[in-house]
């Protein structure tokens, strides 16, 4: 149980927890998605990487102690320095390298809510923990309200803010010509998602954001999730259908007047746990998180 909780806590920006990890054993690996676009894995959220004639473009940057390894993995692909870092949301396993990347010359870009949450102490009710404000040097320098487009490396890279989903800071990044979408933590491929209700996250927003992504893409689109392996449209559709089915079951229990503990005890995820609950997020925890995020 302790190890399971620690794994779940990795998704929340907790500096003390990050310090407890042995980053010396983490290996950062790059996987080619299509020509010019890669997914980097290590510890924390999946990193997106675009390389080409314009320069190096990065989506998320994991934890600060991994910056050197991340940059080494990028240099193995291209000698060009990182020009932009776009954060998909504010959690520390996606923004922990911001300060290092910024000091190395990258321009930090994110939705305005990312800067707002990173710039002030945050409290997570599920874990009863506070996260201190990030230093000024780690905050996004360029912020947007709805969307921003980069015309970069021969592509149109559209960064679109979605309604509160995983948090209220989420953005999805679409490489239009390459037909690749980085979903951030709106998409956990192969597992139940973590919905941070303390950061404004809502299960209904997760479903809506995935529906938007499916509607705006085609059968050959590749999807980079916040966590888990790179996925296909079928993977994203299966994830969406699972979250929607369980959302409806848990909402029904809540509408019937069941308390949070009673909803968890009803085991609404039981027939999905063998496939979706084998990672850090177990069915009972997911039920409670969804219950909390419902109106």
Detailed description of the structure:
The chain has 295 residues and is of the alpha/beta class. The chain has one domain: Metallo-beta-lactamase, Chain A, CATH 3.60.15.10. The chain is 33% helix and 24% strand. The chain has a seven-stranded mixed β-sheet with strand order 1-2-3-4-5-6-9. It has a five-stranded mixed β-sheet with strand order 10-11-12-13-14, with helices on one face. Strands 7-8 form a two-stranded antiparallel ribbon. A hairpin with a 5-residue loop joins strand 3 (47-50) and strand 4. Helix 7 runs antiparallel to helix 8. The model is unreliable at 1-10 and 12-17 (pLDDT under 50).
Which structural class do you get from the secondary structure elements?
alpha/beta
Shape: globular
Main sheet overview: 7 strands, mixed
Q: Give me the number of helical elements.
A: 11
| N-end to C-end Cα span | 29 Å
Q: How many distinct beta strands? A: 14
- Residue stretches low in confidence (pLDDT < 50, at least 5 long) are 1-10, 12-17
Order of helices and strands: HHEEEEHEHHEHEEEEEEEHEHHHH
Strand content: 15-25%
In angstroms, what is the radius of gyration?
18 Å
Helix content: 25-40%
**What number of structural domains do the residues give?**
1
Give the name of the CATH superfamily: Ribonuclease Z/Hydroxyacylglutathione hydrolase-like
Could you tell me the CATH topology label: Metallo-beta-lactamase, Chain A
CATH top level label: Alpha Beta
CATH A-level architecture: 4-Layer Sandwich
Mean pLDDT: 94
Biggest sheet strand order reads 1-2-3-4-5-6-9
